[in-house]
Amino acid sequence: MRLTRRGYAVCGVVATAIALSIGFGPRSLNAIVIPAVVALAAAILQVRRAPVPAVERTVPNDDVPDTTGTVTLSFDTERSYPATVLDALPLGLDGDAEGETLVGDDTFAYEVTYRKRGEYELGPATIVATDVLGLVERELLAPGTDSVLVFPRVRRLSTAARHDLWSLYDAQISPRREEFDGLREYVRGDSLRDVHWKSTAKRDDLIVKEFVAETDASSVHIAAGAARTASDRMAEAAATLCLTFVTSGIPVTLSTPSGVVEATAGDDRQLLEHLARADGGAVPDDAADVVITASEAATRVRYGDSETTFEMLVAETGRANGHFAGGQTGREATGVTTS
């Protein structure tokens, strides 16, 4: 517990009044000294009785870098009091997490911006309780943290690059796609290549073709590794390539130095969660269908008989915060070298 600047000023006034009372008599100064002493005593008692609140923190959804969301803190306490709240923010997140509120009655909210891929903990909150006059303050630490994930950036590949990568899967399943089995309604994760446009035109819903043993098709195996200082590059390239497959109805098995993830068609969440936490290290499987190797100089991608840089695969019009824009077309846009 300590005095605020205002509290020190009041103490100074009291000390001056007492000094003057010695020379000129105390009666004329009672109107100053007694109220000031009473105010200080009441402030000390109020702040001493301020309890540590239970904090419930509402955090934004997990997202990609440069996304801004709102963090809201609510306080559960038996006695309300004015305070300054400071929520601890780690490196990788930006925000003005300090402000004044009435603990116990009001909430405290602030904006936070994700800056870098990773898993981060918000909190604990430091609460500087004060009295209603702002004379005394006491620092309290409210336990409890909450975590957020910042996913790697996901970029859009050029049309030619996407077609080249899809051909890896087509080569695996083409023998099993020769036998047509029937038609059914489109579900999330189905490839647009399988849409039966004539049937779709006659109905309001998309209709897709189904093939014998299609559900037994193997996944595309992607392996990624990086120098310790280039793990963000690795994660960005792996996320982009993985989502290119799974959002097109193609299952993926992803191997990184941090582990293995098997994602079904349309399931991008566990891939992004894994890549948000993934560290650098050696490529775990050099014989994978797609091999990503990242260094400070460049990120290289090898698939089939081709090898290129990740930047050459990305559509030049790019993306912002995970929202895709259109890309280049034409096979020459990939800059792929073929052996």
TrEMBL record:
<keyword id="KW-0472">Membrane</keyword>
<keyword id="KW-0812">Transmembrane</keyword>
<feature type="domain" description="DUF58">
    <location>
        <begin position="183"/>
        <end position="229"/>
    </location>
</feature>
<keyword id="KW-1133">Transmembrane helix</keyword>
<dbReference type="InterPro" id="IPR002881">
    <property type="entry name" value="DUF58"/>
</dbReference>
<dbReference type="Pfam" id="PF01882">
    <property type="entry name" value="DUF58"/>
</dbReference>
<protein>
    <submittedName>
        <fullName>DUF58 domain-containing protein</fullName>
    </submittedName>
</protein>
<feature type="transmembrane region" description="Helical">
    <location>
        <begin position="7"/>
        <end position="25"/>
    </location>
</feature>
